[in-house]
Amino acid sequence: MSVNEDLMVMASDQPLQSVVRDEHLLLAPPHPSKVPMKLWDEHPPLTVVHYPQEYQEEAYAPPRGVYENDEIRVEWQKLDGRQPFYHRNCDVDELCYQIAGERTLMTELGVVEHRAGEFSRIPRGVAHDNYSRAASHLLFYIPAPVAELVPAQRESQAVFPPFPGWQPAPANEAVSWNLGTPGRDITIFGVDEQQLLDHVHNDDRRLQVLRPDRSQDTTWLYGTDRVRIGLVTTVPGGERRYRRTLDADEIQYQANGHRTLITQHGIVDLKPGDFVRIPLGISYASVATEAGDYVSLLSRSEVPQVAKTSRTADHYSPERLVALNAEVHS
């Protein structure tokens, strides 16, 4: 079957060009070659990291690192109750995506009541803490400054008390560098929580809460010259187009719905709570039998996986592709 492949660069939503491909040749092992080169079956298949979206009670634990390099850190965190300290970053903006549950984000720039599907950005140097109710969220640590690419749905507010039952209590503040990596704290010291949160009255800045427009295929929300973060919606049917990003790694987090990811490094079924990384230059397409969406992070530098692998993609086979096509058209 013939398919179209779009050759993309990170800074543009329009392809550099589109190429017509034979889908089987695109995914199958290469023709035999007498020239020494890395063979198809020597490339490892894609790996998937999974954290359940359904809350499972356990003692407080620091955020789990999922992907990391010298420029970016991606974490997953679940929390029920207060975080044990306020946190202030020296070098990065801290972006978050609310996966599930409810979370009160308390900062020197006001309070946000986060709901599932929302994003926000904490600027470098702004202290913050969380009060969560059976919640989980993603964290993206990216060198500042990071820019919002779409208008905010709403802003943080000066709210006192920040949540029902709150009382000022002895608290600590941790100042950290190196992408917020655990163990890279510069100093930890006591603070007056009321005094810290009162800063909002002396600062005109506010956190911007973003909620993507799910009627669009892709909504890019944040960007720098080296990173882009957005939300991609998937729907059943329609033309299957492949995409090859020429200048960026792509990390995907399946937020809602199920889909099958077809790539030159294997085929894998994705469900909510799955992470996967598609290396620079690898062609891929998504096939969905239900509506869904996933968070996408593009990075000009390779972002290796640091979390434990939950499962790996299956190698391509013509039979798998035939079965997938039958499922889509059933």
Q: Approximately what portion of the residues adopt beta-strand conformation?
A: over 45%
Number of helices: 3
Helicity range: under 10%
Q: What distance separates the N and C termini?
A: 18 Å
Give the overall pLDDT as a whole number. Answer: 93
Radius of gyration: 21 Å
Describe the main β-sheet briefly. 8 strands, antiparallel
User: Which structural class best describes the helix and strand composition?
Assistant: mainly beta
Helix/strand order:
EEHEEEEEEEEEEEEHEEEEEEEEEEEH
Counted beta strands: 25
Global morphology: elongated
Unreliable spans are none
Strand order of the largest sheet: 11-16-17-24-19-22-3-25
Organism: Streptomyces plumbiresistens
Protein name: Homogentisate 1,2-dioxygenase
InterPro entries: RmlC-like_jellyroll, RmlC_Cupin_sf
